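tool=predict chain=A
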Amino acid sequence: MAPSFFSARAIVVGLALVLALAATARAQAPKTVPQSKTEVALSFAPLVKKAAPAVVNVYAQRLDKQPRNPIFNDPIFQRFFGDGRRPGGPSAQSLGSGVIVDASGLVVTNFHVVEGMTDIKVALSDRREFPAEILLRDPRSDLAILRIKAAEKDFPVLEMADSDAIEVGDLALAIGDPFGVGQTVTQGIVSALARTEIGINDYGFFIQTDAAINPGNSGGALIDNQGRLIGINSAIFSQSGGSVGIGFAIPVNMVKNVVAAAKSGGKEVHRPWLGASLQNVSRDIAESLGLDRPAGALVAEVDPRGPAAAGGLKRGDVIVAIDGQAVQDSGGVGYRLGARPLGGVAALSVRRDGKPVAVALNLIAAPENPPRNRIKLKGACPLAGASVVNISPATIEEFAIANAREGVAVVDVDEAGPAAAVGFQKGDIVLSLSGEKIGATGDLERLCAQRPYVWKLSINRGGQVITSVIGG
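tool=predict ok
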């Protein structure tokens, strides 16, 4: 019995030694990017090591170069609004995140992070800091492209995936700088796709995730289980200001278009023009058209000059897919076209009188005819402080101007100007002033230079004509 007892004991000891050596070897082996879902379940560290160096912090501020109103020197004013608003100091500050998408130092972030800012710095995960300049602003997508101002041209880059290939339930990691505490990684899944009507930008089409996103994460990376960029974190739904597990990211396929425009030296992004106005398909509309469900985008009007008319799209058609990708509403159509580069043809799948119809849409930019001739109005006019443009297919598309057939469009309103005090809004169409019809921005500028006893004006707001009389 003794020999067999000692043999069994030797076997057990030997096996334990082998297992211990194997565990030590595993512990000492360098971690690599996981190649399977099983490996991912063990640790996210390899993904983070791959992606984090390309995620940066973005610090932005606007500096006052000219002395401001003397009221800013008043101690009582400073008590309520802070010293940061004194002449010569920062009048606004912003903190966000960004992603390096080109080794030369191109960084993508949110437009709202750098909007109105003049002084921008970028901090890498290794604590190096560099000044940066804004190459391109694209408020329609809420994206901006920065360039790091440095002699180095070999920055770490985050690979961009195909956001159309992700599915609900896929792993998602968010990397950014929440609340300025430093680079932070949170984990979750893709909770939903094609979220529209969020109201963040003109292309309301977002990836929803439950990975924690907080203030400061804007412009940061949402990555997949291979450490590739699938979206730019942009907003959260929250009643408290903190994460409640409902965050939204701009799909990377939209980002690619903006990056390409910046690389080509463009200052703005030109996107394909549909040449038609759309509305969502409600349940009542679906029943009246014989559709089995309320999905798709109903063509409400077709511009005879546009590619939609040239391709044969008709009023009453329902667009249900673009290039094989289903669209659930008008926001989906806007995104699918907005993410496509100019040139080539898009295949529209349409339901017409209950039957499927194929429409070929040429991907061309909207013409700017007449030229926009943007003017910021001045003087004692009630419209002073408003910026206006001539109405053309290009400005209708760019500024999302609705119900525009005549007049000039208000595209910006200075918060400190008379126009804001009176109540003018972006999107208003000025039809007439002082009894004279407005045909171009120059007409409005000329009339604003006058000083009548009263100002009589008419505007189109959301399809409703409003006429007002304002004291001069």
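Residues 375-471 form a domain with the Pdz3 Domain fold (CATH 2.30.42.10). The longest strand covers residues 90-102.
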